[in-house]
Fold this protein.
Amino acid sequence: MNICKKCGAEFEIFDKDLEFYKKIDSPAPTFCPLCRLKRRMMFRNERHLYSRKCDLCNKDFLAIYDKNAGFPVYCYDCWWSHEWDARKYAAEYDPNLPFFEQLKTLFDKVPHLGIVISYCENSEYANYTNYSKNCYLAFGCHESEDSYYGWRMHNGLACVDCTQTDRGKYCYECVDCNDGYELFFSQDCENCTDSYFLYDCKSCQDCMFSTGLRNKKNYIFNKKYTPEEYKTEKAKFDFGSNKGLSEAKEKFKKFLLEYPRRALFIVNSENSFGDHIINSKDVRFGFNVKDIYEGAYLESCNELKDAMDSCFCGWPAELNYEGISAGCVNSYNVKFTSTSWTCVNVEYSESCHHSKDLFGCYGLRHKDSYCILNKQYEPAEYLALKKKIIEDMKARKEYGEFFPAELSPFAYNEAVVFDYHPLTREEALNQGFSWKEPNPKDYLPQTFEVPDKINDVSDSITKEILACEKCGKNYKIVAHELLFYRKFNLPIPRNCFDCRHQSRMNNRSSQNLYERKCDKCGTAIKSVYANSRPEKVYCEGCYLKEVY
């Protein structure tokens, strides 16, 4: 067993891990998997946007860095333009200084990309989003249209307050659902339509308050009704009332405890363990991954081969290690790197794209190569100096570790790590992370009383400032959002977008695996549900017998 240098917990390094480290010529890590994950996730801010000016063209725009960032920040058009060259910030390597200290100096000089969007139309209030149109406060989305307040809503149309959905149309408050149509308040569902409050259902239509259904129609609380009976029973629920909807949520929550859940959500995968693993082989400790071949300690990755300790990577990529949003889109051999796409042989770099053979660089684009600290070398010089730096880093016990969390420009409660592993201010500071204090201007008292029923809400609500019932933060209702609620008879949300997002994240499975026994047959299993949880948990065999 190994002892984590960060938290002091014991962790195991497996033989397969050692084989991988040998392949990429890297020392074994000194942080446990969870601390490694937190450290990486400190380097991605998705949902916190600030109004500021571009430091090149001086226009106002929304950015992931506030005006006090301490380094230049460019708008999307300026950053990707040829009006500046990141190589002009080049620095000489100093063997007398720690390498991470030199990286920090470089990172604070080179202009940062203020917002990560591409090929979007009328979607200024978005980030890590591409090929989308008319999206508002949509993050990590791909090819979506007319969608709001969501995270990783892909290929969707008019989806609101959804998390990790694909090919959804007119969906609301859905989590980990695919191919839904007019699907509301549901989770882990596939190809379901005209339904409310479903969990792990497939190919269902006109169903409510049910779990584990397959190819069913007109079910309520897992009970079959005739079409006429279903229509009569459905009318008894007033989802257009905030009071009625709150009662429905509580009923569904209690109902789910009566039925079993699968220990791990693994579909069409071989020799893999984790949760939400699809079409993959030889995956260990993988969560929310698809089309992976040989990987470990992965979160939200697609089309990845031979990789470890990676988040939001792939599409496709090979030989990734210790990266977040790096090793993406036809990348190969990218290590210890953040937010870099279409790269080959890149280490300890950030925001580098369409480049190769980089070490310790920031902001290089347009096919730059053989650079160290943004200075370009001849190939032989580059390889010799890179070897020298790695030797120096190993002597200081720096090499083989991701960037220290102190290098992140984001506070703990700004970065995506907060979505997965929320901490209080005191907990974050005690663990050595920074914290961003809230802006008092965002917490004005609400003077407007929101009607209980959507039918009683007038257009004037779009001019009101509302306050979240949970955290007190202010939020507004925009016109298109109001039209959606009216169309589908849904009440005005009483919580801000951040709290709604966190509530959905809390409903997803954890990134931990626990030893427990199947509640049906007693077989020893691994599960994302700890023994202390109230859910009934079945092994895969018992669960499939239950639902088929």
About this structure: The two ends are 42 Å apart (CA to CA).
